[in-house]
Design a protein that fits this description.
about 400 residues; alpha+beta; DNA polymerase, domain 1; five-stranded mixed β-sheet; four-stranded antiparallel β-sheet; 12 strands; about 40% helix; about 20% strand; globular; disordered N terminus
């Protein structure tokens, strides 16, 4: 393998430590030092969003069913997610990233890649920039993060995992040192190697990244196919040509609710859907884009799932528009059996709505703008005084069915 052309580049991968749980422990001293799980309680159907490190030692992890988490750690404290708070803290963290480089690729609410190559003269080596970012985050949010410093994105993400929590790890930058660093690591450290691929590698006696480095190309191709073989072999030698993607925002925004017991009441389902739409509308306004369509999701007691979707007359972020379309979609659903899950999302997010026209009911641009301003005012009141400080009056059409 030849030297990578990106060897002089410097990338950071910054990953907040147990982000949701850390925020809850920061704001609630009684949770500190105790196993904490953010997610559905163990008595309900749901999953773990994240767990504190005190809970992780019991094997609790993200996406685990809450009931299993409760069994593994009976003394764990379960708290519901507070996404509005987490999003505000995330905005603080990403603002800190932006001080050091404009090249930030957010992977999720709590992690990002940064290309700091152009910032080295101003702030020093990548390791120093990583230390500065860690210090700023700790000083301004009282939270810790782990940072990987490397010549490409794959290696930077690998590095951030080495010293968690509150770690900083610099991956070697020289080619021979990179290859030697990777050799003893398990194949699961390579992107794209999940459970199925790992089992295939096990059958071929390929257990470490060094085994992938030494394997004949024909053997790799027979195990994972030509395309994946080339991809994984490049990673095994520390090669990753990908650049920072500056606009990697979600294409949709959605929320779902799984009921503790399968729900038959349309009134309860209407109330739940209203709250889901309310939250999606708030997130859409915070995002700054407009939705061109909406989607309703219903999962029945027997786990069969279906969706209904429809476009808006014009791109919008006005909550009244979202609530109206959600109600229309749900009224068309016959409740033939109890509902296990209900969800709502907006799709086709765009930056601009283009030329506005009067709709069939004569609603003017001015009226639409006033509704947006009203929604923004509601957001400000809730941000200052809490989510329950003001509630939107519901104006629902007559219900059909039970």
């Amino acid at each position: 393998m030849t030297d990578s052309p990106s060897r002089n580049r410097v990338f950071l991968h910054v990953d907040m430590d147990a982000f949701y749980a850390a925020i809850e422990q920061r704001d609630h001293p009684e949770y500190r030092g105790k196993p904490l799980v953010v997610g559905a309680p163990p008595t309900e159907r749901g999953v773990v969003a994240t767990a504190s490190y005190e809970a992780r030692v019991f094997g609790v992890h993200s996406a685990m069913p809450s009931r299993e988490a409760g069994q593994r750690c009976p003394r764990a404290i379960f708290v519901p997610p507070n996404m509005h708070l987490y999003e505000m803290v995330s905005a603080q963290v990403f603002e800190i990233f932006g001080r050091y480089t404009p090249f930030v690729e957010g992977l999720s609410i709590d992690e990002a890649f940064l290309d700091v190559t152009g910032s080295l003269r101003l702030y020093g080596p990548g390791e120093e920039i990583g230390r500065r970012i860690k210090a700023d985050i700790l000083a301004e949010t009282a939270l810790t993060c782990s940072v990987g410093v490397a010549p490409n994105k794959f290696l930077a993400k690998l590095g951030s995992e080495f010293r968690k929590p509150d770690g900083l790890f610099v991956v070697p930058f020289e080619k021979k040192a990179i290859v030697a660093f990777l050799r003893p690591l398990p194949v699961t450290r390579l992107w794209g190697v999940g459970k199925v691929t790992r089992q295939a590698f096990d059958r071929a006696a390929l257990h470490t990244i060094g085994d992938i480095q030494d394997a004949p190309a024909a053997l790799l191709q027979s195990v994972v196919g030509p395309h994946n073989a080339a991809h994984l072999r490049a990673l095994a030698f520390g090669e990753d040509p990908r650049e920072i993607e500056l606009d990697v925002r979600e294409k949709t925004l959605s929320r779902e609710h799984t009921f503790l017991r399968d729900e038959k009441s349309r009134a309860t389902l209407d109330d739940t859907l209203f709250e889901l739409v309310e939250d999606v509308a708030r997130r859409l306004r915070a995002d700054g884009r407009l939705a061109t369509g909406a989607r309703l999701k219903v999962r029945w007691k027997d786990f069969e799932t279906f969706t209904r979707q429809r476009p808006f007359p014009r791109p919008t972020r006005v909550e009244e528009d979202l609530q109206s379309l959600a109600q229309e979609l749900f009224r068309a659903v016959a409740l033939e059996q109890p509902v296990r899950l209900i969800g709502f999302g907006v799709t086709g997010l765009v930056e601009h709505e283009g030329a506005r026209q009067l709709d069939l009911f004569g609603a003017t641009v001015e009226t639409h703008s006033k509704k947006e301003k009203l929604d923004q005012t509601v957001d400000q009141i809730r941000q200052q005084h809490g989510p329950a400080a003001i509630r939107r009056a519901r104006s629902l059409p007559p219900r059909k069915g039970p």
